[in-house]
From TrEMBL:
It comes from Haptolina brevifila. GO terms for molecular function: ubiquitin-protein transferase activity. This is Ubiquitin-like domain-containing protein. Residues 187-235 form the Ubiquitin-like domain. GO terms for biological process: protein K6-linked ubiquitination. Keywords: ANK repeat, Repeat. The lineage of its organism: Eukaryota, Haptista, Haptophyta, Prymnesiophyceae, Prymnesiales. SMART domains: ANK (SM00248).
Length: 241
């Protein structure tokens, strides 16, 4: 039996908890080489950090593990439990969404217990977890998947931070954008997404700050046809693309 502290991966396993402050500890452990797929038969029957993140219902911890290349399809040897099956059984919709975007195997089945032979979808339906069952049936949308792409998430994150730093006019409390002719090197990203999923164009460049405008494309009757996003990036690191 190992004891806490002997393995960095074991420390990471214990660091995964419902406590929001655990994320910084996880980040440090992962940066120092902790095994994101650590499991020990003597430690909850081989449950991995990914499974534990689902168990304690910490989607942020789960996303951190996924971004660190953790195996979302690892199965517990004793009963075939996967993170997706765990999320379905516990009605963890947000965790299901993350796992589905990350390529979780929807056909994995439990190999032991009263629900042996069941998939995540069958288990969700068994417990009448309707929203989870629907997510498992439909899978992630194109837009949802795209918005989880790390460069796009970074851009949105930077925009959220920087949009509150836009200068104000001397006689107004309303934030205004600086005059166009005074902006240093700009790069514009145009990302068009049609609802049929057939057209997606993305252009990403280095950036310092971001301004954003998002509109929906509609036909003459007002029916949404898709989405359009225009991102204007500015700063010394920007290059014309």
């Amino acid at each position: 039996m190992k004891h806490l502290g002997e393995e960095p991966g074991e420390n990471l396993w214990y660091a995964v908890s419902e406590d929001p402050n655990s994320l910084q500890k996880m980040k440090t452990l992962i940066a120092n080489g902790a095994d994101v797929n650590y499991s020990d038969p003597d430690l909850n029957c081989g449950t991995t950090p990914v499974m534990r993140a689902v168990n304690v219902n910490n989607p942020a911890a789960l996303q951190m593990l996924v971004d660190s290349k953790a195996d979302v399809n690892a199965a517990r040897e004793v009963d075939g439990l996967t993170a997706l099956i765990e999320a379905a059984a516990r009605d963890r919709k947000e965790c299901v969404d993350i796992l589905m975007r990350s390529g979780a195997n929807t056909e994995a089945r439990l190999t032991a217990g009263n629900l042996a032979g069941m998939t995540a979808l069958q288990i969700a339906e068994h417990f009448q977890h309707t929203s989870v069952a629907n997510a498992l049936k439909n899978g992630p949308s194109l837009i949802d998947s795209l918005m989880q792409w790390k460069p796009i998430r970074s851009i949105i994150s930077i925009f959220t931070t920087e949009q509150q730093q836009v200068p104000k006019t001397p006689d107004s409390e309303d934030a205004v954008e600086p005059p166009r002719d005074k902006l240093p090197g700009e790069v514009t990203i145009r990302m068009g997404i049609l609802s049929d999923g057939k057209t997606t164009t993305i252009h990403v460049e280095p950036l310092d700050t971001v301004l954003s405008m998002k509109t929906k494309i509609q036909d003459k009757t007002g029916v949404p046809l898709g989405h359009f996003m225009l991102l204007t990036m500015r700063g010394s690191n920007c290059r014309q693309g």
